[in-house]
C-alpha cells in the first residue's frame, strides 16, 4: 500500500527525491552543453554574436498574474488582457497635464 508523503520517514523522503534531483541536474547539464555547441557553431558559421544571442533567448516572457484594482490577483489570461487594456486606455485618455519643470 502506498503511503502519503506526510507519513514518509526522512530516509524515504531522501530516497525518493534523489533520482528527481539527479535527473534535473542531468537535464540542465545536457541543455547547457547543447547551447554551448550550438552557440559555437553559429559563431563559426556567421561570425555574429547577435545571431548566437537570439538562439539563446528562451522565448518570450508572459504575464502569468495581475492585480485587479480592488487588490485581488487574477491568472485568467482574458482578464489580464482586459485589465492591461483598461489601464493603458485610462492612462492615455487622461486629460491631466503634469508639469515636470523644476
Task: Describe what this molecule looks like in 3D.
The protein is about 60% helix and about 5% strand. Helix 1 (about 10-45) runs antiparallel to helix 2 (about 50-55). It has helices at about 10-45, 50-55, 75-95; strands at about 65, 75. Strands 1-2 form a two-stranded antiparallel ribbon. It has two domains: about 10-55, no CATH class; about 60-100, no CATH class.
Strand content is: under 5%
* Order of secondary-structure elements: HHEEH
Q: Based on helices, strands and strand pairing, what is the structural class?
A: mainly alpha
Gross geometry? flat
Please provide the count of β strands: 2
Cα-to-Cα separation, first versus last residue: 74 Å
Radius of gyration: 25 Å
Question: How many distinct domains?
Answer: 2
Number of helices: 3
Segments where pLDDT lies below 50 for 5+ residues? none
For the biggest β-sheet, the strand order reads 1-2
Largest sheet: 2 strands, antiparallel
DSSP helix fraction? 55-70%
Whole-number average pLDDT? 81
Could you write a compact summary of the structure shown?
With 102 residues, this protein is mainly alpha-helical.
Amino acid at each position: 500500500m502506498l503511503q502519503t508523503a506526510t507519513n514518509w520517514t526522512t530516509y524515504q523522503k531522501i530516497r525518493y527525491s534523489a533520482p528527481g534531483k539527479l535527473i534535473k541536474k542531468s537535464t540542465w547539464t545536457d541543455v547547457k552543453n547543447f547551447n554551448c555547441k550550438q552557440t559555437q557553431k553559429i559563431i563559426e558559421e556567421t561570425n555574429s554574436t547577435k545571431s548566437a544571442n537570439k538562439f539563446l533567448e528562451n522565448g518570450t516572457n508572459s504575464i502569468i498574474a495581475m492585480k485587479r484594482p480592488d487588490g485581488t490577483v487574477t491568472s485568467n489570461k482574458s482578464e489580464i488582457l482586459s485589465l492591461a487594456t483598461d489601464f493603458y486606455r485610462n492612462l492615455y485618455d487622461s486629460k491631466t497635464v503634469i508639469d515636470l519643470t523644476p
